[in-house]
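Aim 2, interim progress: modelling of the heme C-bound target.
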Amino acid sequence: MSPTPSLKTVLTFSLLSLTAMSGCTDFESSFVYSDRTSALIPEAQDGLDGQPGVKSLLDEKFGTPQDLKAWLKLPVDFGGLSVGIEKVVPGDDGRSEVTFSELEDGSFPATAVSVEIMSGEASGEVLQFASWDADTRTAVLATESTKPLAAGDQCSIDRGQVLKDGRVLYMRHCSHCHGTAGDGKGPTAEYLNPRPRDYRHGIFKFTSTNAESKASRDDIARILKYGIPGTYMPSFLLLKDQELHAIVEYVRFLAMRGEYERKLTVELATDFSTKQVEQQQKDGESRESILSNLKGFLAADMKEQSVALGDELAEQWTASDTEDALIIPKVPRIADSVESRRRGRELYLSKTLNCADCHGVDGAGNGPQTTAFEKNPVTGELYPEAGLHDIWDNSNQPRNLQAGIYRGGRRPIDLFNRIHAGIKGSRMPSFKNTPEEDIWHVVNYILSVPFESEPGATGTPSTAPAAAATAATDSSDAAAK
Ligand code: HEC
Ligand code: HEC
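Predicted structure of the complex, ligand included:
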Protein backbone atom coordinates (compact mmCIF):
# COMPACT_ATOMS: atom_id res chain seq x y z
CA MET A 1 0.00 0.00 0.00
CA SER A 2 1.35 3.46 -0.82
CA PRO A 3 2.17 5.73 2.14
CA THR A 4 -0.92 7.91 1.79
CA PRO A 5 -3.59 6.00 -0.07
CA SER A 6 -6.73 7.98 -0.72
CA LEU A 7 -9.82 5.87 -0.11
CA LYS A 8 -10.81 6.11 -3.73
CA THR A 9 -7.64 4.59 -5.12
CA VAL A 10 -7.78 1.50 -2.92
CA LEU A 11 -9.32 -1.08 -5.22
CA THR A 12 -9.56 -3.99 -2.86
CA PHE A 13 -8.48 -4.46 0.69
CA SER A 14 -7.91 -7.57 2.62
CA LEU A 15 -10.19 -8.05 5.57
CA LEU A 16 -8.44 -9.38 8.62
CA SER A 17 -7.97 -13.09 8.46
CA LEU A 18 -10.33 -14.84 10.78
CA THR A 19 -8.79 -16.82 13.54
CA ALA A 20 -9.61 -20.44 12.90
CA MET A 21 -12.76 -21.38 14.72
CA SER A 22 -12.95 -24.62 16.59
CA GLY A 23 -15.00 -27.20 14.78
CA CYS A 24 -14.07 -25.89 11.34
CA THR A 25 -14.57 -28.59 8.82
CA ASP A 26 -13.12 -28.72 5.36
CA PHE A 27 -16.19 -27.46 3.63
CA GLU A 28 -15.76 -24.13 5.39
CA SER A 29 -12.23 -23.33 4.38
CA SER A 30 -12.49 -22.54 0.69
CA PHE A 31 -14.94 -21.24 -1.88
CA VAL A 32 -15.59 -23.86 -4.54
CA TYR A 33 -15.18 -22.76 -8.13
CA SER A 34 -17.97 -23.34 -10.64
CA ASP A 35 -18.14 -26.38 -12.89
CA ARG A 36 -17.41 -24.15 -15.86
CA THR A 37 -14.19 -22.91 -14.22
CA SER A 38 -13.15 -26.44 -13.33
CA ALA A 39 -13.70 -27.56 -16.93
CA LEU A 40 -11.07 -25.09 -18.20
CA ILE A 41 -7.46 -26.10 -18.88
CA PRO A 42 -5.25 -25.43 -15.81
CA GLU A 43 -3.53 -22.45 -17.45
CA ALA A 44 -6.90 -20.69 -17.92
CA GLN A 45 -7.84 -21.40 -14.31
CA ASP A 46 -4.58 -20.45 -12.65
CA GLY A 47 -3.04 -18.00 -15.11
CA LEU A 48 -0.13 -18.12 -17.51
CA ASP A 49 3.20 -16.26 -17.57
CA GLY A 50 2.09 -13.70 -15.02
CA GLN A 51 -1.35 -13.16 -16.58
CA PRO A 52 -4.04 -13.95 -14.00
CA GLY A 53 -6.53 -16.76 -14.72
CA VAL A 54 -10.12 -16.98 -13.48
CA LYS A 55 -9.23 -18.30 -10.05
CA SER A 56 -6.53 -15.69 -9.52
CA LEU A 57 -8.94 -12.90 -10.43
CA LEU A 58 -11.66 -14.27 -8.19
CA ASP A 59 -9.29 -14.66 -5.25
CA GLU A 60 -7.85 -11.21 -5.80
CA LYS A 61 -11.30 -9.58 -5.79
CA PHE A 62 -13.20 -11.74 -3.29
CA GLY A 63 -10.58 -13.68 -1.30
CA THR A 64 -11.30 -16.89 0.56
CA PRO A 65 -13.66 -17.50 3.49
CA GLN A 66 -10.69 -17.25 5.87
CA ASP A 67 -9.31 -14.12 4.22
CA LEU A 68 -12.13 -12.17 2.60
CA LYS A 69 -11.36 -9.33 0.22
CA ALA A 70 -13.49 -6.27 -0.30
CA TRP A 71 -13.79 -5.11 -3.90
CA LEU A 72 -14.74 -1.56 -3.05
CA LYS A 73 -16.45 -0.97 -6.37
CA LEU A 74 -19.25 -3.35 -5.35
CA PRO A 75 -22.33 -2.09 -3.51
CA VAL A 76 -21.75 -4.21 -0.42
CA ASP A 77 -21.61 -2.67 3.03
CA PHE A 78 -18.29 -4.19 4.01
CA GLY A 79 -18.32 -2.23 7.25
CA GLY A 80 -15.97 0.43 8.54
CA LEU A 81 -16.32 3.98 9.79
CA SER A 82 -14.02 6.64 8.29
CA VAL A 83 -12.65 8.98 10.95
CA GLY A 84 -9.58 11.06 11.78
CA ILE A 85 -7.32 10.81 14.80
CA GLU A 86 -7.72 13.75 17.21
CA LYS A 87 -4.93 12.91 19.65
CA VAL A 88 -2.69 10.10 20.78
CA VAL A 89 -1.63 9.83 24.44
CA PRO A 90 0.96 7.23 25.42
CA GLY A 91 -0.49 5.28 28.36
CA ASP A 92 1.22 4.57 31.69
CA ASP A 93 1.49 0.87 30.90
CA GLY A 94 2.88 1.60 27.47
CA ARG A 95 -0.52 1.24 25.78
CA SER A 96 -1.46 4.27 23.73
CA GLU A 97 -4.83 5.89 24.10
CA VAL A 98 -6.23 7.14 20.80
CA THR A 99 -9.06 9.68 20.66
CA PHE A 100 -10.90 10.05 17.35
CA SER A 101 -12.35 13.28 15.94
CA GLU A 102 -16.05 13.93 16.33
CA LEU A 103 -18.31 12.73 13.53
CA GLU A 104 -20.27 15.31 11.58
CA ASP A 105 -23.25 13.04 11.23
CA GLY A 106 -24.09 10.06 13.36
CA SER A 107 -22.39 8.59 16.35
CA PHE A 108 -19.76 6.00 17.15
CA PRO A 109 -20.80 2.35 17.48
CA ALA A 110 -21.19 1.01 21.01
CA THR A 111 -18.72 -1.75 20.31
CA ALA A 112 -15.57 -1.57 18.18
CA VAL A 113 -12.56 -3.85 18.04
CA SER A 114 -9.98 -2.47 15.63
CA VAL A 115 -8.78 0.45 13.56
CA GLU A 116 -7.02 0.41 10.20
CA ILE A 117 -4.74 3.39 9.57
CA MET A 118 -5.33 4.84 6.09
CA SER A 119 -2.86 7.73 5.93
CA GLY A 120 0.25 9.00 7.67
CA GLU A 121 3.38 7.08 8.61
CA ALA A 122 1.59 4.02 9.99
CA SER A 123 -0.65 3.72 6.93
CA GLY A 124 -1.79 0.18 6.27
CA GLU A 125 -1.44 -1.03 9.85
CA VAL A 126 -4.36 -2.68 11.63
CA LEU A 127 -4.43 -2.14 15.38
CA GLN A 128 -6.60 -4.06 17.82
CA PHE A 129 -8.39 -2.35 20.71
CA ALA A 130 -7.95 -3.45 24.33
CA SER A 131 -10.94 -1.30 25.25
CA TRP A 132 -13.29 1.16 23.57
CA ASP A 133 -15.44 3.96 24.94
CA ALA A 134 -17.94 5.36 22.46
CA ASP A 135 -18.82 8.38 24.65
CA THR A 136 -15.27 9.71 24.85
CA ARG A 137 -14.43 8.36 21.35
CA THR A 138 -11.34 6.82 22.86
CA ALA A 139 -9.69 3.45 22.41
CA VAL A 140 -6.88 1.88 24.37
CA LEU A 141 -4.75 -0.04 21.90
CA ALA A 142 -3.96 -3.70 22.47
CA THR A 143 -1.41 -3.73 19.68
CA GLU A 144 0.93 -0.79 19.14
CA SER A 145 1.74 0.46 15.67
CA THR A 146 5.31 0.02 14.47
CA LYS A 147 5.38 3.63 13.18
CA PRO A 148 4.12 6.68 15.11
CA LEU A 149 0.48 7.73 14.90
CA ALA A 150 -0.34 11.41 14.65
CA ALA A 151 -3.32 13.74 14.98
CA GLY A 152 -4.94 14.14 11.58
CA ASP A 153 -4.19 10.61 10.37
CA GLN A 154 -7.18 9.15 8.55
CA CYS A 155 -8.35 5.74 9.61
CA SER A 156 -11.24 3.32 9.50
CA ILE A 157 -12.75 1.79 12.61
CA ASP A 158 -13.81 -1.85 12.28
CA ARG A 159 -13.09 -1.93 8.59
CA GLY A 160 -14.67 -4.99 7.00
CA GLN A 161 -16.40 -5.98 10.24
CA VAL A 162 -19.89 -6.25 8.71
CA LEU A 163 -18.72 -8.75 6.14
CA LYS A 164 -16.73 -10.69 8.71
CA ASP A 165 -19.74 -10.88 11.03
CA GLY A 166 -21.86 -11.90 8.06
CA ARG A 167 -19.45 -14.66 7.22
CA VAL A 168 -19.47 -16.08 10.76
CA LEU A 169 -23.28 -15.99 10.96
CA TYR A 170 -23.64 -17.43 7.48
CA MET A 171 -21.31 -20.32 8.26
CA ARG A 172 -23.27 -21.03 11.44
CA HIS A 173 -26.83 -20.73 10.14
CA CYS A 174 -26.84 -21.11 6.37
CA SER A 175 -23.85 -22.90 4.88
CA HIS A 176 -24.97 -26.43 5.73
CA CYS A 177 -27.80 -25.88 3.25
CA HIS A 178 -26.54 -23.13 0.92
CA GLY A 179 -22.85 -24.13 0.84
CA THR A 180 -19.75 -22.10 1.71
CA ALA A 181 -19.69 -20.39 -1.68
CA GLY A 182 -23.49 -20.05 -1.87
CA ASP A 183 -23.65 -22.76 -4.51
CA GLY A 184 -26.69 -24.35 -2.85
CA LYS A 185 -24.73 -27.54 -2.20
CA GLY A 186 -24.14 -27.67 1.54
CA PRO A 187 -23.98 -31.11 3.15
CA THR A 188 -27.73 -31.07 3.96
CA ALA A 189 -28.82 -29.91 0.51
CA GLU A 190 -29.16 -33.20 -1.27
CA TYR A 191 -31.91 -34.33 1.08
CA LEU A 192 -34.06 -31.27 0.45
CA ASN A 193 -36.79 -30.66 -2.07
CA PRO A 194 -36.86 -27.97 -3.36
CA ARG A 195 -33.12 -27.52 -3.23
CA PRO A 196 -31.59 -24.56 -1.34
CA ARG A 197 -30.98 -21.59 -3.60
CA ASP A 198 -27.69 -21.41 -5.47
CA TYR A 199 -26.95 -17.68 -5.21
CA ARG A 200 -24.29 -17.67 -7.93
CA HIS A 201 -26.65 -16.66 -10.72
CA GLY A 202 -27.33 -13.46 -8.80
CA ILE A 203 -31.03 -14.26 -9.16
CA PHE A 204 -33.58 -14.56 -6.38
CA LYS A 205 -37.12 -15.72 -6.98
CA PHE A 206 -39.38 -13.83 -4.58
CA THR A 207 -38.78 -10.12 -4.92
CA SER A 208 -40.71 -6.87 -4.71
CA THR A 209 -38.75 -5.52 -7.66
CA ASN A 210 -39.75 -5.45 -11.31
CA ALA A 211 -39.00 -8.22 -13.78
CA GLU A 212 -35.72 -6.66 -14.95
CA SER A 213 -34.28 -5.99 -11.49
CA LYS A 214 -32.42 -8.05 -9.00
CA ALA A 215 -33.56 -8.56 -5.42
CA SER A 216 -33.39 -5.61 -3.06
CA ARG A 217 -31.77 -5.80 0.37
CA ASP A 218 -35.28 -5.70 1.86
CA ASP A 219 -36.32 -8.70 -0.24
CA ILE A 220 -33.46 -10.82 1.08
CA ALA A 221 -34.07 -9.61 4.63
CA ARG A 222 -37.77 -10.47 4.36
CA ILE A 223 -36.94 -14.02 3.21
CA LEU A 224 -34.62 -14.37 6.22
CA LYS A 225 -37.21 -13.10 8.66
CA TYR A 226 -40.14 -15.16 7.45
CA GLY A 227 -38.53 -18.12 5.69
CA ILE A 228 -40.17 -19.67 2.63
CA PRO A 229 -43.44 -21.42 3.54
CA GLY A 230 -43.78 -24.93 2.20
CA THR A 231 -39.99 -25.40 1.88
CA TYR A 232 -37.10 -26.12 4.24
CA MET A 233 -35.96 -22.50 4.20
CA PRO A 234 -36.44 -21.58 7.88
CA SER A 235 -37.32 -18.29 9.51
CA PHE A 236 -34.56 -16.37 11.29
CA LEU A 237 -36.87 -13.94 13.02
CA LEU A 238 -34.88 -14.21 16.24
CA LEU A 239 -31.71 -12.71 14.81
CA LYS A 240 -31.03 -9.08 15.71
CA ASP A 241 -31.38 -6.43 13.00
CA GLN A 242 -27.63 -5.90 12.98
CA GLU A 243 -27.07 -9.63 12.43
CA LEU A 244 -29.65 -9.77 9.65
CA HIS A 245 -27.95 -6.83 7.98
CA ALA A 246 -24.57 -8.59 8.12
CA ILE A 247 -26.02 -11.79 6.64
CA VAL A 248 -27.82 -9.91 3.86
CA GLU A 249 -24.55 -8.20 2.89
CA TYR A 250 -22.74 -11.53 2.91
CA VAL A 251 -25.41 -13.16 0.71
CA ARG A 252 -25.10 -10.25 -1.74
CA PHE A 253 -21.32 -10.62 -1.66
CA LEU A 254 -21.59 -14.35 -2.50
CA ALA A 255 -24.16 -13.66 -5.22
CA MET A 256 -21.89 -11.06 -6.84
CA ARG A 257 -18.88 -13.36 -6.59
CA GLY A 258 -20.81 -16.13 -8.30
CA GLU A 259 -22.16 -13.90 -11.02
CA TYR A 260 -18.71 -12.48 -11.69
CA GLU A 261 -17.31 -15.99 -12.09
CA ARG A 262 -20.18 -17.14 -14.32
CA LYS A 263 -19.85 -14.22 -16.69
CA LEU A 264 -16.07 -14.14 -16.70
CA THR A 265 -15.93 -17.74 -17.90
CA VAL A 266 -18.48 -17.55 -20.74
CA GLU A 267 -16.06 -16.59 -23.50
CA LEU A 268 -13.11 -18.36 -21.98
CA ALA A 269 -15.02 -21.65 -22.03
CA THR A 270 -15.71 -21.44 -25.77
CA ASP A 271 -12.01 -21.86 -26.63
CA PHE A 272 -10.14 -22.98 -23.54
CA SER A 273 -12.12 -25.77 -21.91
CA THR A 274 -10.19 -29.04 -21.64
CA LYS A 275 -12.62 -30.55 -24.14
CA GLN A 276 -12.21 -27.73 -26.69
CA VAL A 277 -8.45 -27.73 -26.40
CA GLU A 278 -8.29 -31.51 -26.94
CA GLN A 279 -10.43 -31.06 -30.04
CA GLN A 280 -8.24 -28.26 -31.35
CA GLN A 281 -5.17 -30.44 -30.85
CA LYS A 282 -6.85 -33.30 -32.71
CA ASP A 283 -7.51 -30.81 -35.52
CA GLY A 284 -3.77 -30.23 -35.74
CA GLU A 285 -3.24 -27.10 -33.66
CA SER A 286 -0.19 -27.18 -31.41
CA ARG A 287 -0.50 -26.75 -27.66
CA GLU A 288 2.04 -23.91 -27.85
CA SER A 289 -0.11 -21.90 -30.21
CA ILE A 290 -3.25 -22.54 -28.14
CA LEU A 291 -1.43 -21.34 -25.02
CA SER A 292 -0.13 -18.30 -26.81
CA ASN A 293 -3.73 -17.45 -27.81
CA LEU A 294 -4.77 -17.96 -24.22
CA LYS A 295 -2.05 -15.64 -23.01
CA GLY A 296 -3.24 -12.96 -25.40
CA PHE A 297 -6.81 -13.44 -24.22
CA LEU A 298 -5.90 -13.25 -20.54
CA ALA A 299 -3.73 -10.18 -21.04
CA ALA A 300 -6.32 -8.15 -22.96
CA ASP A 301 -9.92 -9.41 -23.12
CA MET A 302 -10.09 -10.88 -19.64
CA LYS A 303 -8.75 -7.74 -18.03
CA GLU A 304 -11.29 -5.62 -19.87
CA GLN A 305 -14.11 -8.03 -19.02
CA SER A 306 -13.15 -8.02 -15.39
CA VAL A 307 -13.47 -4.23 -15.16
CA ALA A 308 -16.69 -4.16 -17.19
CA LEU A 309 -18.25 -6.88 -15.07
CA GLY A 310 -17.39 -5.04 -11.87
CA ASP A 311 -19.11 -1.95 -13.27
CA GLU A 312 -22.13 -3.96 -14.38
CA LEU A 313 -22.54 -5.67 -11.01
CA ALA A 314 -22.20 -2.34 -9.22
CA GLU A 315 -24.80 -0.73 -11.45
CA GLN A 316 -27.39 -3.50 -11.33
CA TRP A 317 -27.18 -4.25 -7.63
CA THR A 318 -27.28 -0.55 -6.79
CA ALA A 319 -30.27 0.09 -9.07
CA SER A 320 -32.26 -2.85 -7.68
CA ASP A 321 -32.02 -1.32 -4.23
CA THR A 322 -33.69 1.95 -5.22
CA GLU A 323 -37.36 2.88 -5.31
CA ASP A 324 -37.34 2.92 -9.11
CA ALA A 325 -36.95 -0.84 -9.11
CA LEU A 326 -39.99 -1.47 -6.91
CA ILE A 327 -43.34 -2.54 -8.29
CA ILE A 328 -45.74 0.10 -7.04
CA PRO A 329 -49.25 -0.51 -8.42
CA LYS A 330 -50.89 2.67 -9.71
CA VAL A 331 -54.28 1.04 -9.38
CA PRO A 332 -55.03 0.35 -5.72
CA ARG A 333 -56.20 -3.09 -4.73
CA ILE A 334 -59.63 -3.95 -6.09
CA ALA A 335 -61.80 -5.20 -3.26
CA ASP A 336 -62.57 -8.89 -3.21
CA SER A 337 -66.07 -9.70 -4.51
CA VAL A 338 -67.87 -12.46 -6.35
CA GLU A 339 -67.69 -10.40 -9.58
CA SER A 340 -63.99 -9.74 -9.20
CA ARG A 341 -63.22 -13.44 -8.62
CA ARG A 342 -65.31 -14.40 -11.67
CA ARG A 343 -63.47 -11.88 -13.82
CA GLY A 344 -60.21 -13.21 -12.37
CA ARG A 345 -61.08 -16.77 -13.28
CA GLU A 346 -61.99 -15.72 -16.84
CA LEU A 347 -58.61 -14.05 -17.19
CA TYR A 348 -56.88 -17.05 -15.63
CA LEU A 349 -58.42 -19.33 -18.27
CA SER A 350 -58.08 -16.82 -21.13
CA LYS A 351 -55.76 -17.38 -24.06
CA THR A 352 -53.96 -14.12 -23.23
CA LEU A 353 -52.85 -15.00 -19.70
CA ASN A 354 -53.24 -18.75 -20.00
CA CYS A 355 -52.34 -19.49 -16.39
CA ALA A 356 -54.20 -22.80 -16.80
CA ASP A 357 -51.63 -24.01 -19.33
CA CYS A 358 -49.27 -24.49 -16.37
CA HIS A 359 -51.39 -24.38 -13.23
CA GLY A 360 -54.30 -26.42 -14.64
CA VAL A 361 -57.93 -25.47 -15.16
CA ASP A 362 -58.67 -25.80 -11.45
CA GLY A 363 -55.32 -24.57 -10.16
CA ALA A 364 -54.10 -27.99 -9.06
CA GLY A 365 -50.71 -27.38 -10.69
CA ASN A 366 -51.33 -29.97 -13.39
CA GLY A 367 -51.70 -28.03 -16.66
CA PRO A 368 -50.59 -29.48 -20.04
CA GLN A 369 -47.07 -28.02 -19.65
CA THR A 370 -46.47 -30.31 -16.68
CA THR A 371 -46.72 -33.46 -18.78
CA ALA A 372 -44.69 -32.28 -21.77
CA PHE A 373 -40.93 -32.91 -21.89
CA GLU A 374 -38.65 -29.86 -21.99
CA LYS A 375 -35.24 -29.38 -23.51
CA ASN A 376 -32.35 -28.15 -21.41
CA PRO A 377 -31.67 -24.76 -23.05
CA VAL A 378 -27.89 -25.13 -22.56
CA THR A 379 -27.25 -28.70 -23.65
CA GLY A 380 -30.24 -28.97 -26.00
CA GLU A 381 -31.07 -32.39 -24.53
CA LEU A 382 -34.46 -33.45 -23.17
CA TYR A 383 -34.72 -33.51 -19.40
CA PRO A 384 -35.29 -37.02 -18.04
CA GLU A 385 -38.47 -35.98 -16.23
CA ALA A 386 -41.59 -34.34 -17.63
CA GLY A 387 -42.58 -30.77 -16.80
CA LEU A 388 -40.83 -27.48 -16.24
CA HIS A 389 -37.33 -26.68 -14.97
CA ASP A 390 -35.76 -23.56 -13.55
CA ILE A 391 -32.44 -22.00 -14.54
CA TRP A 392 -30.75 -24.07 -11.85
CA ASP A 393 -31.82 -27.17 -13.83
CA ASN A 394 -34.09 -28.32 -11.03
CA SER A 395 -37.46 -29.74 -11.88
CA ASN A 396 -39.79 -26.88 -10.95
CA GLN A 397 -43.50 -27.46 -11.21
CA PRO A 398 -46.22 -24.81 -11.25
CA ARG A 399 -47.63 -24.27 -7.78
CA ASN A 400 -50.72 -26.17 -6.69
CA LEU A 401 -52.90 -23.13 -6.05
CA GLN A 402 -55.49 -25.19 -4.17
CA ALA A 403 -53.01 -25.62 -1.32
CA GLY A 404 -53.01 -21.91 -0.52
CA ILE A 405 -49.29 -21.94 0.34
CA TYR A 406 -47.40 -19.07 -1.25
CA ARG A 407 -43.62 -19.07 -0.98
CA GLY A 408 -43.24 -15.40 -1.71
CA GLY A 409 -45.86 -14.32 0.86
CA ARG A 410 -49.66 -14.47 1.01
CA ARG A 411 -50.60 -10.78 1.16
CA PRO A 412 -52.50 -9.60 -1.93
CA ILE A 413 -49.55 -7.34 -2.82
CA ASP A 414 -47.19 -10.34 -2.69
CA LEU A 415 -49.33 -12.17 -5.25
CA PHE A 416 -49.61 -8.99 -7.33
CA ASN A 417 -45.81 -8.81 -7.38
CA ARG A 418 -45.47 -12.51 -8.27
CA ILE A 419 -47.77 -12.07 -11.28
CA HIS A 420 -46.37 -8.69 -12.34
CA ALA A 421 -42.67 -9.68 -12.23
CA GLY A 422 -43.05 -13.43 -12.60
CA ILE A 423 -40.86 -15.68 -10.48
CA LYS A 424 -37.30 -14.94 -11.52
CA GLY A 425 -35.25 -17.90 -12.64
CA SER A 426 -38.39 -20.06 -12.92
CA ARG A 427 -40.78 -20.57 -15.84
CA MET A 428 -43.49 -18.51 -14.17
CA PRO A 429 -43.52 -15.56 -16.61
CA SER A 430 -43.90 -11.86 -15.95
CA PHE A 431 -47.31 -10.37 -16.76
CA LYS A 432 -46.12 -6.78 -16.50
CA ASN A 433 -48.04 -5.70 -19.61
CA THR A 434 -51.36 -6.90 -18.23
CA PRO A 435 -53.60 -4.03 -17.00
CA GLU A 436 -53.23 -3.67 -13.25
CA GLU A 437 -57.00 -4.00 -12.67
CA ASP A 438 -56.84 -7.39 -14.32
CA ILE A 439 -53.93 -8.51 -12.14
CA TRP A 440 -55.94 -7.56 -9.03
CA HIS A 441 -58.94 -9.59 -10.29
CA VAL A 442 -56.64 -12.58 -10.80
CA VAL A 443 -55.22 -12.08 -7.29
CA ASN A 444 -58.75 -12.18 -5.86
CA TYR A 445 -59.47 -15.34 -7.80
CA ILE A 446 -56.18 -17.04 -6.75
CA LEU A 447 -56.86 -16.24 -3.10
CA SER A 448 -60.31 -17.83 -3.39
CA VAL A 449 -59.16 -21.09 -5.01
CA PRO A 450 -58.39 -22.98 -1.76
CA PHE A 451 -61.83 -22.08 -0.43
CA GLU A 452 -64.02 -23.07 -3.38
CA SER A 453 -66.85 -25.49 -2.61
CA GLU A 454 -65.91 -27.37 -5.77
CA PRO A 455 -63.24 -26.66 -8.39
CA GLY A 456 -64.19 -23.70 -10.55
CA ALA A 457 -67.18 -22.71 -8.39
CA THR A 458 -65.88 -19.19 -8.21
CA GLY A 459 -67.68 -16.93 -5.82
CA THR A 460 -69.43 -19.63 -3.85
CA PRO A 461 -67.11 -20.27 -0.96
CA SER A 462 -67.67 -23.46 0.98
CA THR A 463 -68.04 -23.26 4.75
CA ALA A 464 -64.76 -25.08 5.37
CA PRO A 465 -61.51 -24.73 3.40
CA ALA A 466 -61.64 -28.41 2.46
CA ALA A 467 -59.26 -28.21 -0.45
CA ALA A 468 -56.70 -26.37 1.64
CA ALA A 469 -56.78 -29.07 4.27
CA THR A 470 -56.41 -32.00 1.90
CA ALA A 471 -53.86 -30.42 -0.36
CA ALA A 472 -51.82 -28.74 2.31
CA THR A 473 -48.55 -30.36 1.37
CA ASP A 474 -47.23 -29.06 -1.87
CA SER A 475 -44.58 -31.41 -3.13
CA SER A 476 -44.66 -30.37 -6.73
CA ASP A 477 -40.90 -29.76 -7.03
CA ALA A 478 -38.44 -32.53 -7.42
CA ALA A 479 -34.72 -32.00 -7.41
CA ALA A 480 -33.08 -32.73 -10.72
CA LYS A 481 -31.31 -36.03 -10.89
C1 HEC B 1 -32.53 -26.28 6.13
C2 HEC B 1 -31.97 -25.70 4.95
C3 HEC B 1 -31.82 -24.19 4.84
C4 HEC B 1 -31.20 -23.34 5.72
C5 HEC B 1 -30.55 -23.66 7.04
C6 HEC B 1 -31.24 -22.04 5.09
N1 HEC B 1 -31.89 -22.10 3.90
FE1 HEC B 1 -32.19 -20.56 2.61
N2 HEC B 1 -33.26 -21.78 1.38
C7 HEC B 1 -33.46 -23.13 1.60
C8 HEC B 1 -34.28 -23.65 0.52
C9 HEC B 1 -34.73 -25.09 0.39
C10 HEC B 1 -34.55 -22.58 -0.36
C11 HEC B 1 -35.31 -22.62 -1.67
C12 HEC B 1 -36.79 -22.48 -1.57
C13 HEC B 1 -37.43 -22.38 -2.92
O1 HEC B 1 -36.79 -22.60 -3.94
O2 HEC B 1 -38.61 -22.04 -2.96
C14 HEC B 1 -33.88 -21.43 0.23
C15 HEC B 1 -33.89 -20.17 -0.36
C16 HEC B 1 -33.18 -19.08 0.12
C17 HEC B 1 -33.11 -17.80 -0.53
C18 HEC B 1 -33.73 -17.45 -1.86
C19 HEC B 1 -34.94 -16.56 -1.80
C20 HEC B 1 -35.44 -16.19 -3.17
O3 HEC B 1 -36.25 -15.26 -3.27
O4 HEC B 1 -35.03 -16.78 -4.17
C21 HEC B 1 -32.28 -17.01 0.22
C22 HEC B 1 -31.86 -15.58 -0.05
C23 HEC B 1 -31.87 -17.80 1.35
N3 HEC B 1 -32.44 -19.05 1.28
C24 HEC B 1 -31.02 -17.36 2.32
C25 HEC B 1 -30.67 -18.10 3.45
C26 HEC B 1 -29.82 -17.61 4.50
C27 HEC B 1 -29.10 -16.29 4.48
C28 HEC B 1 -29.77 -18.58 5.45
C29 HEC B 1 -29.07 -18.51 6.79
C30 HEC B 1 -29.40 -17.38 7.64
C31 HEC B 1 -30.54 -19.70 4.96
N4 HEC B 1 -31.08 -19.37 3.76
C32 HEC B 1 -30.69 -20.91 5.64
C33 HEC B 1 -32.99 -23.88 2.64
C34 HEC B 1 -32.28 -23.40 3.71
C1 HEC C 1 -45.22 -21.33 -18.16
C2 HEC C 1 -45.79 -21.80 -16.95
C3 HEC C 1 -46.53 -20.84 -16.04
C4 HEC C 1 -47.52 -19.95 -16.36
C5 HEC C 1 -48.07 -19.61 -17.74
C6 HEC C 1 -47.94 -19.37 -15.11
N1 HEC C 1 -47.25 -19.89 -14.09
FE1 HEC C 1 -47.52 -19.45 -12.12
N2 HEC C 1 -45.96 -20.64 -11.65
C7 HEC C 1 -45.23 -21.40 -12.53
C8 HEC C 1 -44.16 -22.07 -11.81
C9 HEC C 1 -43.14 -23.01 -12.43
C10 HEC C 1 -44.28 -21.68 -10.47
C11 HEC C 1 -43.37 -22.10 -9.32
C12 HEC C 1 -42.08 -21.27 -9.34
C13 HEC C 1 -41.19 -21.48 -8.14
O1 HEC C 1 -41.59 -21.24 -7.01
O2 HEC C 1 -40.06 -21.85 -8.34
C14 HEC C 1 -45.43 -20.79 -10.40
C15 HEC C 1 -45.88 -20.22 -9.22
C16 HEC C 1 -47.02 -19.46 -9.13
C17 HEC C 1 -47.59 -18.96 -7.89
C18 HEC C 1 -47.02 -19.19 -6.50
C19 HEC C 1 -46.44 -17.92 -5.90
C20 HEC C 1 -45.84 -18.17 -4.56
O3 HEC C 1 -45.54 -17.17 -3.88
O4 HEC C 1 -45.65 -19.31 -4.15
C21 HEC C 1 -48.73 -18.28 -8.22
C22 HEC C 1 -49.66 -17.58 -7.27
C23 HEC C 1 -48.85 -18.33 -9.64
N3 HEC C 1 -47.80 -19.05 -10.17
C24 HEC C 1 -49.88 -17.73 -10.34
C25 HEC C 1 -49.95 -17.69 -11.72
C26 HEC C 1 -50.93 -16.93 -12.45
C27 HEC C 1 -52.04 -16.15 -11.81
C28 HEC C 1 -50.66 -17.10 -13.77
C29 HEC C 1 -51.32 -16.45 -14.95
C30 HEC C 1 -51.49 -15.02 -14.86
C31 HEC C 1 -49.51 -17.99 -13.86
N4 HEC C 1 -49.11 -18.31 -12.59
C32 HEC C 1 -48.94 -18.42 -15.03
C33 HEC C 1 -45.46 -21.53 -13.87
C34 HEC C 1 -46.37 -20.79 -14.60
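The mean pLDDT is 90. The CA atoms of residues 178 and 398 lie 23 Å apart.
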